[in-house]
Write a structure and sequence with these properties.
This protein is α+β, with helices and mostly antiparallel strands. 13% of the residues lie in helices and 27% in strands. The strands form 4 sheets. It has a 6-stranded mixed β-barrel. Strands 13-14-12-15 form a 4-stranded antiparallel beta sheet. 37% of the residues are buried.
Length: 316
């Protein structure tokens, strides 16, 4: 098997890249589209790859996971466009980290047809061909990696199995970015247009002309005052944060923030709270990105023993 230690820790704290994702007004998203059922399908919000098809919405280049980042002192600069991307190199695979999250903050599923790239904009679709045996697979690129020198892409276990490279761990591949297409989705039903029967309407019979009566002009009613406009309703969603459940003194709070920084969570800040005239502090992370899941981040923080956190909401 190939070494995965550094990438394992990177994905265990994938909210670190996605929490570089903790940069912008956001709310927890619950509208995750259903993915194709069965082995070999993958879904990331509305994106998916299954059975030779891949659909990905246009990459949000302002999202934190498409911004420059640093791993182990090495800086990486995601591309602004993947058009015409066609490269060869060594690919590896990762597959037994189920339950962790991707750099986009979505759940990683080993048997889905997904892949990780250090610099391709997320998400995008790519065709990967094993140059040793000619097999190919269409994958959804939704994660960052591999962070091992000399490798071009990290494939999920499901994609590696299709390519026949599970046992050897790595393979020489060709990676070609392909246009996103939703041909695997059935088109929406078109409304049925029914013919309308033409009815012939006969002319009404003539009516007798009324006698001419001089109308009496009445004064117009007094004008009603214009209604006052209603105040605008604020529809901006609240901002979500993660913060330590219990307040701490300054030394404890600084120590907790440094631990988070060591795991790549650079958005951790101290928030003062006051009790009986004495200052205490909470460590706050956020705000969360639009496609993030606070429950997933909380589970990852607990798994890494980075403290007891809860979700905090801020309006305006």
């Amino acid at each position: 098997m190939h070494p995965r230690i550094d990438l394992h820790w990177f994905r265990l704290s994938a909210f670190a890249v996605a929490a570089a994702a903790l940069s912008g007004c956001a709310s927890m998203s619950s509208n995750v589209a259903p993915v194709a059922a069965g082995y070999g399908s993958a879904g990331v919000a509305s994106a998916y790859a299954s059975n030779g098809y891949c659909y990905a919405p246009p990459a949000n280049l302002d999202a934190a996971y498409n911004q420059p980042y640093q791993i182990d002192g090495q800086s990486y600069y995601p591309m602004q466009s993947s058009t015409g991307y066609d490269r060869r190199g060594t690919a590896s695979w990762y597959g037994w980290e189920s339950g962790t999250v991707t750099a986009m903050g979505t759940a990683f599923r080993p048997r889905a047809l997904t892949a990780a790239s250090r610099t391709l904009p997320l998400p995008c679709c790519a065709r990967v061909t094993n140059l040793d045996n000619g097999r190919s697979v269409v994958v959804l690129v939704d994660d960052r990696g591999p962070f091992v020198a000399g490798r071009i892409m990290d494939l999920s276990y499901g994609a590696a199995q299709v390519l026949g490279m599970v046992h050897q761990g790595t393979a020489e591949v060709q990676v070609q970015v392909i246009p996103s297409g939703n041909t695997a989705l059935p088109p929406p039903p078109q409304p049925e247009v029914l013919p309308v029967a033409q009815r012939v309407i006969s002319a009404p019979p003539p009516v007798a002309q009324p006698r001419m009566v001089t109308p009496v002009r009445r004064p117009p009613p007094p004008a009603s005052p214009a209604p006052r406009p209603l105040p605008a309703v604020q529809t901006q969603p609240p901002k979500l944060f993660l913060q330590t459940a219990q307040p701490m003194n300054l030394n404890e709070a600084n120590r907790e923030r440094r631990r988070l920084n060591d795991f790549g969570i650079s958005t951790a800040v101290l928030v003062p709270v006051y009790s009986h005239g004495q200052a205490f502090y909470r460590v706050r992370i956020g705000p969360l990105a639009p496609n993030s899941s606070p429950a997933t981040f909380l589970a990852s923080l607990r798994r890494l023993q980075l403290g007891d956190f809860s979700v905090a909401t801020q309006y305006g």
